[in-house]
Design brief:
Elements: H1 5-17, H2 20-27, H3 31-45, E1 50-52, E2 57-59, H4 61-86, E3 92-98, H5 103-115, E4 119-125, H6 130-136, E5 142-148, E6 156-164, E7 166-171, E8 191-194, H7 198-205, E9 216-220, H8 224-232, E10 238-241, H9 244-247, E11 253-257, E12 264-271, H10 277-293
């Protein structure tokens, strides 16, 4: 049996997305090509890895057993590739992902570049919700990710860096634009920007899905810039962290505090493996930076 790392990457993409088209988009290949690769892998293994129906793709028991082994194999190769790229330079590569770079997040990265001179810090931006998939797949070493409420982070370790209260983002011409505060019940009839999957929407908006408050979603966005543009145009509203007030000041939007919803906690998230020296150094620097700028950045310590 002669497997390739690329085949395992294809397997991981389908296993994580549970959808051939989404997995193909992530891999930048066609769905038919991906299906052929998965079929080829199954023939080599002589084992069915997926249960395919017209509506969804699920792992077989054998596929579920292969999943953690495939992740370890891909991560091991990427560690070797990173080592080879850095060999002789004296600098280790530290890859961090973030869907939104708030003012505080930017301060942390700038401090890392200035102070952690033995690290080559690489930053990658992701659409909403994609940073944890990239972390699980080994494309990055850590993520600056907002965690709202009780979110399962199975397979990850997280270090809370700061907390933010929540504000409603609206157009400057919206009826709420001149309000100084709001309650959730007042905004239950609003149309909200959709961001990613249903899980991503819960993660990013923090809107409670109660019987008396079922959010109505409208236009979709994959970045904070798109969220701002949609809200500024009056097409929808969105719930964001209070640091957006200083990170994204615009004359065509308003940020109104919401007094009865839970806070956002921004964490440094990594895979649940022993932290490297680079990870420990970055974590310590991040915590120090947050403490130094919390008041100015509209955030509080966790």
């Amino acid at each position: 049996m002669d497997l390739t790392i690329q085949q395992l990457r294809y397997f991981l993409a389908v296993a994580e997305e549970r959808h051939f088209t989404r997995a193909a988009e992530r891999l930048v290949i066609t769905p038919s090509a991906l299906s052929q690769q998965i079929s080829s892998l199954e023939r080599r293994l002589r084992i069915d890895l997926f249960l395919r129906t017209s509506r969804q793709v699920d792992l077989t028991p054998a596929g579920a057993q292969l999943l953690p082994m495939a992740r370890r194999a891909v991560l091991a190769l990427e560690d070797i590739e990173a080592w080879r790229a850095d060999y002789g330079t004296g600098r280790a590569t530290f890859r961090i992902g973030a869907p939104i770079l708030t003012l505080t997040g930017s301060r942390i990265l700038a401090a890392a570049v200035r102070q952690l001179t033995d690290l080559q810090v690489q930053v990658e931006r992701f659409p909403f919700g994609e940073e944890l998939k990239a972390l699980r797949g080994g494309r990055i070493d850590a993520a600056l990710a907002p965690i709202i409420g009780e979110l399962s982070l199975s397979g990850f370790e997280s270090v809370p860096l700061w907390r933010e209260s929540r504000v409603l983002l609206v157009s400057s011409s919206h009826p709420f634009a001149e309000r100084t505060e709001l309650k959730l019940e007042e905004i239950s009839a609003e149309c909200f920007v959709a961001v990613g999957s249903a899980t991503d929407q819960a993660l990013w908006s923090g809107i409670p899905h109660a019987d008396d408050f079922v959010p109505r979603y409208g236009p979709r966005a994959s970045s904070m810039e798109e969220v701002l543009d949609l809200c500024a145009a009056g097409l929808a509203v969105h719930i964001v962290g209070a640091s957006a007030v200083v990170t994204y000041p615009r004359p065509d939007v308003r940020f109104i505090p919401i007094v009865d919803t839970y806070d956002l906690t921004c964490c440094l998230v990594r895979r649940a493996t022993p932290p490297t020296a680079a990870m420990k150094a970055f974590e310590e620097l991040a915590i120090e930076t947050v403490k130094a700028h919390a008041a100015a950045d509209h955030i509080s310590l966790p």
